[in-house]
Design a protein that fits this description.
Bound molecules: alpha-D-galactopyranose
Radius of gyration: 28 Å
Shape: globular
Structural class: alpha+beta
Number of helices: 13
CATH superfamily of the largest domain: Aldolase class I
Distance between the termini: 41 Å
CATH class of the largest domain: Alpha Beta
Length: about 725
């Protein structure tokens, strides 16, 4: 598993989840020196991927739980769903396909239980379906999952893959040893260059996916490693793994945004046929909304990223199929000009990206990163067009076509993207582009009063205009429908509406009110546009326990051991009890006193933080947290006092397993020597801990509420005011 800190983990030899397996492998396999001749570093690997690779990989959804049926079942679904015919043609078996050791001749061996007919059979079946055969290996001593790596076996492994008629090799970079006298970067370079040369020597065209840059993310050599990856291979993973299928929707969305954010800045390092790879498409995984999976698909396409689905294709929802199979969006990704789009404008909670296309059009994505709907507006000039006063906007998802005199705008729901294909030209038969914009004009006397504006961005005016409003059950909207004045080109007509909300339950309630404007657009006839308004209501939870949303402790007899870490593992309730943490127990440590959750094992006992607001009262020096962390992050806590003032503090914990550090100033409260996994209690030679940490309080003030960090990797079991 590659996390932003994977490099540090690798060298510090600590890790969790699949990293723990990595460690097992590291310990078992002595680092070997490289015996191969240095590769010809001047050789440019052939352009075997003229457009970004497309296909399917098992990893994010299945991790190591794969076998022949998983791979071939998904391959069949790729074909029967029609996705293969749309370009998703490469099926890659990721880590864990082999046995733990090579055979007596030093060859890699397919796991005989998972793959009883061997990987070459899998490849032959894929080829018979008209698909391409992708396989995973690692450049180091072991794969990230602890299976034999290819160090010192480059030619042998490349020859084996060629013999098996492999078409695509993903070469990971876990456990690449640093050779004496070399830097890490040099050793990776040697190893990947040797592999590249070995693949060339086979004479078989195999697309080469290089993972080296991911092990240098944000370090001083990152760009350099990407530079030579573009020489030795066709595409490269340059950063953190995307969230696994088992992680929470919040964690997945935050992971998608994170991978987007590092990838979008790397456009300079990409060229046609050489692709930045921000990891898998998650469309199909439960939990993400249609807007979120569409956002990923649209952003990845504008970034000319590989489109590699990693989900259970045999149970693909209609939404996921529509998102993955949108030919117009795929065409943006696969455009023959082969250039990654760039951010051309950024504002409060949004990015605008533009990608030049081969026929002179541009793909323009209006990405609303925020949690509230907003109208995002840019111009054709900003998107990269020269002069011009008429442009056609095709919304590649709704297929709605409009015409603008230069402003490119859309009403974009939270987490959504509007992706336009923009071309110069257009005539009066194309209806004008329009937007609906909401403006809050509430006053103390008139709460919930808004101005709704209909703006005409095209060259012809709008007549016979009206706006109708829809709201969720329990809301009132006054008036529900209103006529507007005629709208001249470039102008806005407005109406006032008042909204009242039903009483909300504790927690965060997000409501969407939609205004739909109908109008006649001259010769283009009738058309309409909708603009959403997001209203977020936060009612504090009376206690932390009311906000519990995650199972952190399960009995060892439980066959479904929770999912504390997004990898289907949790604390052992038996081990916690032995350490003193029974339901409702008082836990005293580090000068702090907490109450362990009263929740029974296997029921929610902690908050996976997402900005929840919790009532708490008291005065003291510090606010104390009992918790843990599963992703190497910290987040901000906001304390609100009874006088309305606030204070903030940073809360972080070391990782729940393996970390004995005092990172973020945390201290250990409980230590256990095993955890629960789907395969039963497990001890990977590391410890599992619960920590305490504090954030300061303002002296003399009384706490009213605490806002937890918005950081799903942070888990909180208990809160207390330290007197
Ligand atoms: C790394 C890679 C993942 C996957 C796993 C397999 O974490 O980044 O995509 O291949 O290894 O162990």
């Amino acid at each position: 598993m590659i996390s932003p800190l994977a490099r540090r983990l690798r060298t510090a030899a600590v890790g969790c989840g699949s990293l723990a397996l990595t460690l097992a492998g590291l310990v078992a396999a002595a680092p070997a020196g490289s015996a191969a001749a240095p590769a010809d570093t001047a050789t440019q690997y052939p352009n075997y991927a003229p457009t970004p690779p497309m296909g399917w990989n098992d990893w994010s959804y299945y991790q190591c739980n794969i076998d022949e049926n998983t791979i071939l079942g998904n391959a069949r679904a790729l074909v029967s769903s029609g996705l293969a015919a749309k370009g998703y043609d490469t099926v890659t078996t990721d880590d864990c396909w082999m046995t733990r050791s090579r055979d007596s001749s030093g060859n890699l061996v397919s796991d005989p239980v998972k793959f009883p007919h061997g990987m070459d059979y899998v490849g032959a079946q894929l080829h018979a379906m008209g698909l391409k055969f992708g396989i995973y290996e690692d450049a180091g001593t072991t794969t990230c999952g602890g299976y034999p790596g290819s160090l010192d076996h480059w030619q042998q492994d490349a020859d084996l893959f060629a013999k098996w008629s492999v078409d695509y090799v993903k070469l990971d970079g876990c456990n690449v040893p640093t050779k004496p006298g070399e830097t890490d970067e040099q050793s990776y370079h040697d190893t990947y260059s040797a592999w590249s040369q070995a693949m060339l020597n086979t004479g078989r065209p195999m697309v080469f996916s290089v993972s080296a840059p991911a092990y240098f993310q944000d370090g001083p050599d990152w760009d350099k490693v990407i530079g030579w990856s573009a020489q030795v291979g066709n595409l490269w993973r340059e950063g953190a793994d995307v969230a696994l299928g088992q992680e929470s929707p919040a964690a997945k969305w935050s992971s998608l945004k994170y991978n987007y954010a590092y990838n979008v800045d790397l456009a300079d390092l990409q060229s046609p046929g050489r692709w930045n790879d921000p990891d898998f498409l998650l469309a199909g995984d439960s939990g993400l909304t249609r807007d979120e999976i569409q956002s990923q698909m649209s952003l990845w396409s504008v970034m000319a990223a590989p489109l590699i689905s990693s989900t259970d294709l045999t149970h693909l929802s209609a939404d996921a199929l529509a998102v993955l199979g949108n030919r117009d969006v795929i065409a943006v990704d696969q455009d023959p000009k082969g250039l990654q789009g760039r951010i051309v404008q950024q504002g409060d909670g949004y990015d605008v990206l533009s990608k030049p296309l081969a026929n002179g059009d541009r793909a323009v994505a209006l990405f609303n990163k925020s949690d509230s709907a907003q109208t995002i507006s840019t111009s054709a000039a900003t998107a990269g067009f020269g002069h011009g006063s008429s442009f056609v906007l095709k919304d590649l998802v709704t297929k709605h076509v409009t015409r603008t005199t230069g402003t490119i705008a859309a009403d974009v729901p939270p987490h959504a993207n509007v992706l336009y294909r923009v071309s110069a030209g257009g005539d009066v038969s194309v209806p004008p582009a329009t937007t609906v914009t909401w403006k809050d004009v509430s006053t103390a006397d008139h709460p919930g009063t808004y101005t709704v504006g209909l703006t005409d961005l095209g060259p012809t005016g709008l007549s016979d205009t009206s706006v109708s409003l829809t709201a969720p059950a329990g809301w009132t909207v006054t008036p529900a429908s209103v006529r507007l004045n005629r709208v001249a080109p470039g102008k806005t007509a407005t109406a006032k509406v008042t909204l009242t909300a039903p009483e909300a339950a504790p927690g965060t309630t997000v409501s969407t009110i939609t205004a739909t404007a109908h109008y006649v657009a001259g010769p283009a006839g009738r058309d309409s546009v909708s603009g959403p308004l997001t209203i977020t209501t936060v009612v504090p939870y009376p206690t932390l326990a009311d906000a519990f949303n995650n199972v952190g402790a399960t009995l060892e007899s439980d066959t479904a051991p929770g999912n504390l870490d997004g990898d289907s593992n949790s604390y052992s309730a038996d081990a916690l009890a032995a350490a003193g943490a029974t339901p409702g127990a008082t836990i005293t440590a580090n000068g702090l006193t907490f109450t362990w959750p009263t929740a029974a094992p296997g029921t929610p006992d902690n908050v996976e933080t997402g900005g929840q607001v919790v009532e708490l009262t008291g005065q003291g020096d510090a606010l104390a947290f009992l918790g843990t962390e599963t992703g190497f992050t910290s987040g901000q806590v906001v304390v609100t006092y009874t006088d309305g003032t606030t204070s903030t503090g940073t809360l972080g914990f070391p990782n729940w397993c393996c970390s004995t550090t005092t990172d973020y100033g945390a201290q250990t409260v409980l230590t256990m020597d095993h955890r629960n996994t789907p395969a039963g209690p497990a001890n990977f030679g590391v410890s599992y801990r619960v920590f305490s940490n504090t954030v300061p309080l303002t002296a003399g003030k009384t706490v009213r509420t605490v806002t937890l960090p918005n950081q799903p990797a942070i888990h909180v079991f208990a809160l207390a005011v330290k007197p």
